[in-house]
Amino acid sequence: MDRIAALFFAFLHVILTLNSAASVKAADFYYENAVYREEIKSVQLYRDGNELSNPVIELGSDAALVLKFDDLAEDAKNFSYTVVHCDANWNESFIQQNEYLSGFHDNPLSDNAMSFNTTVRYVNYQLRIPNEDCSPKLSGNYALVVFEDNDRENLVLIQRFYVVEPLVRIEGLVKKATFDPFNGENQEVDFKIVNEKLRLLNPREDIKVVLMQNRRWDNAVLNLKPSFVRDNVLDYDYDKENVFPGGNEFRYFDIRTKRYNGENVEDIKFIRPYYHVKLLNDAVRSNKKYGSYKEMNGNFVVESQDRVTDYDTECDYMFVHFYLPLGSNLAGGSVNVFGALTGWNANKTNEMKWSFENSGYELTLLLKQGYYNYQYVYVPSGAKKADSANLEGSFFITENEYQIFAYYRDQAARYDRLVGFVTVNSAVKN
């Protein structure tokens, strides 16, 4: 084993040690998107046919969700999965699995294939939900839990998805914040829920809403009550409670080919036995003017422009090197690479290290060939919310997507039904 390969496996060992404490019994925490092993890569869950879609399907429809991920291993493992119904806050619902699932509770994850002609060997796993072995019977939040050796405590990953029964209509609008003390940095999301089917005895309590920006949970607005209730309309017209920093457009890079440098790539080198990608030097954007361009709101796609027939098993992995010049270390918190490529989480696996020698923050991630969006965020020590404004800037004209979920639970119910969902884009003016 040469020196680079030894460093690669040493890197995996360190991260696995850091993450081992996270492999606890699923019932001990609320369900969130999480990967519990460093060798698990490129996790995606989306509506079949659209790799960039939110994992939302309608109850009783023919639509399906697709889960994909890679395991950096030589052979397939004994992975299984289960599906858990959750309330609006992602705690497990007080109902039995046979009440919300048709089929079997635990099922083998048997659809797998070895990588072909790649420098990094991996096993690609795929799953469709619903399927003949497992199908949700109720609307609501669901957690897809993958584990190993038929042991639910031996967690591999968790991914959230949604099943909606569209009983209400949601109408939303994104605009510049009404009271913006920061001179045009924030966006306000006003919306209405039009109800013509549900019997709401106490509309302020029977309906719960969750408002998210670009599918992020860390800065989601929860427990927002209607400001007005008129006839069959619940109006959420606030000036402060529904305000988000506009942020900036996501940065991007293209590593769909190994033959030449893609967008925002300075150099691709094969340093035996792996490929290394050096991105163009980034810069702090909080002191720069806003620039408009098209991006994917933090998402990524696995693709190749090389001669391959199957992206899932023939796209290679590369070490991607990020560098953010900064004259001094930011005290009191961490700087992280953030977006779907890091699971919308800011933790040790994507925390950058400040280099005195190079006067900036550095991070190396092992990523599959594709097209990626990302941002740099600052996370104060002990905080759960990532802040992009300090490093990226914030503008009310930034294009963002907002997801609005409406949940219903009457006094006799034991679970939250998801009765409405809509995505509102800040670039679309009504």
Could you give the count of β-strands? 30
**How would you characterize the largest beta sheet?**
6 strands, mixed
Give helix % range.
under 10%
Structural Rg: 22 Å
CATH class of the largest domain: Mainly Beta
Q: At CATH's second level, what is the architecture of the largest domain?
A: Sandwich
Poorly predicted spans: 1-28
CATH fold-type name of the largest domain: Immunoglobulin-like
Features:
430 residues; mainly beta; Immunoglobulin-like; six-stranded mixed beta sheet; five-stranded antiparallel beta sheet
Structure description:
With 430 residues, the chain is mostly beta strands. The chain folds into 3 domains: 162 residues, Immunoglobulin-like (Sandwich), CATH 2.60.40; 107 residues, Sandwich (Immunoglobulin-like), CATH 2.60.40; 142 residues, no CATH class. Helix content is 8%, strand content 43%. The protein has 5 helices and 30 strands. Strands 1, 3, 5, 7, 11 and 12 form a 6-stranded mixed β-sheet that branches. Strands 13, 14, 17, 18 and 19 form a 5-stranded antiparallel β-sheet that branches. The protein has a 5-stranded mixed β-sheet with strand order 21-22-24-27-26, with no helix packed on it. The N and C termini lie far apart (61 Å). The N terminus is likely disordered.
